[in-house]
Amino acid sequence: MPTIALSPCKIPGLDREASCGTLAVPERGELPGGRTIPLNVVVIPSLTRPRALSEPIFSIAGGPGQAATDSAARIVPTYGDALRDRDLVLVDQRGTGKSNPLVCWPYPESDIRRFLSPPAPLEEIRRCRQTLEQHADLTAYSTPLAAEDLEAVRGALGYERVNLEGGSYGTRVALEYMKRHGDRVRAAVLSAVSPAGFRNPLPFARAGQAALDNLLAACAADARCQRAFPEAKKDFSTVLARLERGPVTVSVTNPVTGRREEALLGRDLFATRIHLLLLSSSLAARIPFLVHRAAAGDFEPFAQLAAEFGRAIVEQIDYGMQLSVLCTEDVALIKPQDVDPETKGTFLGGARVRHMIEVCKEWPQGRLPKDFLAPVQSMTPTLLISGALDPATPPRFGDEVARHLGRGRHVVIPEGSHVDGGTCIDGLVQQFLKAGSAESLDISCVEGIHRPPFFTG
Predict the structure, then answer these.
(1) Is 387 helix (H, G, I), strand (E, B) or coil?
(2) Distance between CA atoms of 284 and 449, rounded to whole angstroms?
């Protein structure tokens, strides 16, 4: 059995002991003697070592394309007392972070178009594929292989069983691990459930429209928001109509260089950034203000936030890995005739989905196990968490997964968005991980989670 040689390391922003190491795994598990890739592993030891429980928390990043170790400083405080007696293990999924990253973004690092531009043209996708294929088999970066990587890390670190925690795409990896190695899982937390068969990004249009409609209705019902933006819904229609006539030129501050530059803002970019803002309740609270200014002809506040958000995405996501997952596991399941029924009449429309279908024609697709789309049948204690206002992974996906989990409990946050929660949800997760059971959890605090006040300028 391979082992991982861990050595002390410093995690930026984290004032706590950590150990780092790498584990070499076959890029293609069925090809012994073939190319190996390194998995970057970080272990945050429990506070009670050497008396730590033998069942650590494996935290799985989302995206797909995010590196788990990049989030260490942010997520450690959310676990609170759960890390008193348990190690936290972070593994950069193959293709991300320091695990043979598939880095692929068009335009130079400081080019404003990198953060504020339409989807990458197909010639850039081809260039990216050709570059990455020099050091990676792009068909080998999938959820099933990622699950096997986690099992290899578990074995190499000597843990008998683990607790899984994943958000968004990370829930798919966790579920795949439960399907393949359920006897190794003590308990699992799944937030913003995105299971196999999700068909990313097809569900975004309807879920995003529902979230936007709810937001605008809440603004109309809020005295302060309604007074500041008495025609918020009309403002949104005005902006879409203007951008449908063609892109606008807007001046923004480049988030990398700090210099003022001109950029183009088109209808599809506007829609996709609105959708991204809806993922966060705190950012969604700014939408009525930003749209009101844009309806009056001032697109700069929206474009500036969109550029900064775009930079955050670029810095968090290894796009080549994302394409390997989505093209094999999601887009391959979307038929052209599916697009209109699922997107017509929404602000996102079908452009994003159709573009991804074309992109995936340029990207190699991997092979999936025959049971990949089969629901996970398990008696593992599982806590599922969804936001009722999630514009990407609405609660119906959590409901469907929970139907097959004999000891699963699905908690829906009435005014929650994508991986929202704060102290209430952090507390529930900590209690669940301590007890190893969701049945007796007191979830009353979720009724006290409300959308933040609207920003009115």
Answers:
(1) strand
(2) 15
Query: Does the pLDDT at position 388 exceed 90?
Result: yes
Closest Cα to residue 431, out of 375, 385, 391? 385
Spatial distance between the Cα atoms of 399 and 413, rounded to a whole number of angstroms: 13
- Whole-angstrom distance, CA of residue 449 vs CA of residue 131: 46
Question: The whole model's pTM is what?
Answer: 0.96
Average pLDDT over residues 230-238: 98
pLDDT tens per residue, range 202-220:
999 999 999 999 999 999 9
What domains can be seen in the chain, in order of their start residue? 7-103+140-199+370-448 (3.40.50.1820)
> Please, are residues 389 and 214 in contact by the beta-carbon 8 Å criterion?
yes
- Considering Cα of 316, then 28, then 166, then 56, what sign does the dihedral take? negative
H or E element in which residue 239 lies: helix 232-244
The CA–CA distances, whole Å, from 116 to 273, 300, 310, 383, 455 equal: 10, 12, 6, 37, 23
Both tokens of residue 394? 């609405």
pLDDT digits (tens, 9 = 90+) for 48-87: 877 777 899 999 999 999 999 999 999 999 999 899 999 9
What pLDDT score does 32 carry?
Answer: 65
Q: How confident is the model at residue 30 (pLDDT cuts 50, 70, 90)?
A: low
Cβ 265 vs Cβ 248: under 8 Å: yes
Q: Measuring CA to CA, which residue among 125, 43, 141 is closest to residue 361? A: 125
HEC secondary structure over 287-331: HHHHHHHHHCCCCHHHHHHHHHHHHHHHHHCCHHHHHHHHHHHCH
The tokens describing 213, both together, are 């409609």
Biggest CA–CA distance in the chain, Å, is 68
